[in-house]
Design brief:
Layout lengths: L3 H14 L7 H8 L3 H17 L7 E2 L2 E2 L6 H16 L12 H23 L4 E5 L3 E7 L3 H18 L17 H30 L7 H30 L1
Antiparallel strand pairs: 1-2, 3-4
Length: about 250
């Protein structure tokens, strides 16, 4: 003889097969021609039966019976997902080390250094006594201030420009994104410094190839003001960066 539990099981199976939501307790009572109390007891028995079969019981809350997640297809998919999760090996992220830049930078530094020093000597930069009357033997060739100032500032401005931007989140809590004003100043001055360096290299090699030992006065004038201009640019950029940090 077919029991209420069998009729409830059949009604739930038909709803699942047709892709329809499971009927609530009142609808099950109407379909099985049983009382709601009998339907409730049948649902509880079905839950216990599914729990004993390692399934997830359908929750009976109020007047609705929630669909069970003991579907074999879902269980198989969950098992496969769990296996993939447990067997997947964590990928190790190796830090990016741009070692080719060392070779490229070394070659460029030698060429740029020789060009700036040669241009400085043609423009009147030479050996001076740093501490006359105090340490007369301490001498320095001032031509080296040109590559140290111009190229070092260009690298610094590039770092500020391409480093931390407003759209980039800093990994350090002590570092804040740069303002648009700072980025514009760094971008403009970096490009200008690189352009000045390129023009200076061209000027030196042209004069050297032509046999010049002294640069024309317009070039001497421009080369003489370069350290002062770079000092002003570096001070202004450092102040802008400091304002961004403490704002």
């Amino acid at each position: 003889m077919e029991t209420v539990r069998d009729r409830v099981r059949t009604a739930l199976a038909i709803a699942d097969q047709n892709g329809q939501p499971r009927p609530d307790r009142a609808e099950l009572a109407r379909q099985t021609r049983a009382t709601e109390r009998a339907v409730y007891e049948a649902l509880v028995e079905l839950d216990k039966e599914k729990a004993n079969n390692n399934g997830t019981p359908a929750h009976v809350n109020g007047n609705k019976a929630e669909p069970s997640s003991s579907n074999p297809v879902k269980r198989k998919a969950a098992t496969v997902k769990q296996k993939l999760t447990t067997t997947r090996k964590p990928t190790s992220k190796r830090p990016h080390r741009p070692w080719p830049l060392l070779i490229i930078g070394l070659g460029a530094a030698v060429a740029v250094w020789s060009g700036w020093v040669g241009l400085g000597q043609m423009a009147g930069f030479g050996v001076i006594q740093l501490l006359p009357g105090i340490w007369d033997d301490l001498r320095l060739n001032t031509a080296i201030v040109l590559p140290l100032s111009v190229e070092a500032y260009a690298a610094y401005a590039l770092h500020v420009w391409l480093g931390i931007t407003p759209a980039t989140k800093s990994r350090s809590t002590k570092t804040k994104p740069r303002s648009n004003r700072t980025l514009r100043f760094a971008r403009t001055s970096a490009i200008a410094s690189l352009a000045i360096g390129a023009v200076a290299q061209v000027a030196y090699h042209l004069m050297s190839a032509a046999g010049y030992t002294r640069a024309p006065w317009p070039i001497v004038m421009l080369v003489a003001i370069i350290p002062v201009v770079v000092l002003g640019l570096a001070s202004a950029l450092a102040k802008l960066v400091s304002n961004d940090i403490h704002r």
